[in-house]
């Protein structure tokens, strides 16, 4: 599924890959509509009917992920509202073991996320995730979402890497397809990004796993081989 011996760098999505997507799903589909209904004196279902199409229309663009954009458009403090449900922020299964194994195998681990810097800080404060990786890059630094081909060119200038020796792990097939078009050597999909939702369907061309325990044995085997050399 992954050829660990050919890798130097592992790019990791954050939400839905390392962290449980349940936080974001709950926020956008439940908590925000509730607060929006209160703010504009709407019934809860009216709020959803107004908000969800508005949000979905931005899917795949940087606006979809941009806290500033939604704060301005809705006239609500999105970062503050996210903090109200911060207790839902948490790791997906086996993530810390996987990140430790990457470090032990001397593979460079870099979080490559579409998350806006404000909620990113909130998530790092809650999880300490930044202590387990080499660095974190937000697409907002480049003004391009990962789905945009130009993102990977800008990333190369910030985090020099050899695409052929790089693995991209993400729960978004559009992002993985974008990475593959940019020459990333290997891609791996996360099929169960949200602990409260059914797993996603797989992709014919991109291998997928539900949790990292499915690839940990092979990674640790590679580590054992390295230790004998």
Automatic annotation (TrEMBL):
It holds the Pfam family HAD_2. One of its GO terms (molecular function) is 5'-nucleotidase activity. Its EC number is 3.1.3.5. NCBIfam families: HAD-SF-IA-v3 (TIGR01509), PRK14988.1 (NF011564). CDD domains: HAD_like (cd01427). Its cofactor is Mg(2+). It is an enzyme of class 3 (hydrolase). The gene is yrfG. This is GMP/IMP nucleotidase.
